[in-house]
């Protein structure tokens, strides 16, 4: 692989269409002990996959034998729609006017709000396509013998820790990777490889004394800085959890049908984030907000047709209907 270096890989990654790219050394992550403590407390809820293959998750060399480097990439999903205020401004204004649980916070309860990352194509597909193109570019420029394993978030990889080590950003107090330009409106991917590449320098933590994300969470899911108790998180309850939403938490859903962006919307970095020049995620108007009455009477076939290619298909119709009923029973829809 003569001639393959970090600078060339970064250039190829930008050409493929990634917004951020860096290299981390393949070694035990800095947050290994924190992850062990997190799992011991059961904060992952029913996301049992987080507790499986922990050795691979905290050390890429266990995942890929002989790994020396991890190529980390980021893709912004922030798309600013025509007439839309900058991300978070309307949310922040509503909270100042109505406060938590106020009318302005609940929105129009005939509709369910969808988290921004799901407004366009399933990011797993988009990210995997571009990772494979980057890996092929690397192979075609060398002798083809390098090990290159492409990973999206379904692989046992501590993507935020690796991305932070590679210099893509820092882990904010909401537990998400933050970048000064793109905020936390990012999906991450990795290529674990046996190539020896020059690693980047970690970015400085720029959250300072700000605690807006912790204070804004309506369910108190951010139990400490960078510690999310999933069992109380609206995103977890509306997407990941296979159980009925507890009544006390159901009252906190507001108009959030699929996911939640509150801890991102209130972040100053996200309120001035720029849209991706790559434009990987074109938003669909009918995926941003969903009419609850229509969803509750929708058939499986109609659901599959309407949301083909969307992350929402992963949650499934029955679960989304359950969330819609929880919203309705809380006094909204």
Distance between the termini: 60 Å
Low-confidence stretches: 93-104
Shape: globular
Number of domains: 2
Q: What is the residue-mean pLDDT, rounded to a whole number?
A: 88
Structural class given helices, strands, pairing?
A: alpha+beta
Largest sheet, spatial ordering of strands: 1-2-7-4
Taken in chain order, the helices and strands follow as HEHHHEHHEHEHEEEHEEHHEHHHEHHHH
Largest sheet: 4 strands, antiparallel
Protein architecture, described:
The chain has 333 residues and is of the alpha+beta class. It has two domains: 6-77 and 121-193, no CATH class; 89-118 and 208-329, no CATH class. It is 38% helix and 14% strand. The protein has helices spanning 6-16, 32-40, 54-58, 60-63, 89-98, 103-106, 123-140, 159-166, 212-216, 234-240, 247-250, 262-265, 268-271, 285-288, 292-296, 300-306, 312-315, 317-329, and strands at residues 20-25, 69-76, 111-114, 148-151, 170-171, 177-178, 186-193, 222-224, 227-228, 256-258, 289-291. A four-stranded antiparallel sheet has the order 1-2-7-4, sandwiched between helices. α1 (6-16) crosses α7. It is globular, with a radius of gyration of 20 Å. The termini are far apart. 42% of the residues are buried.
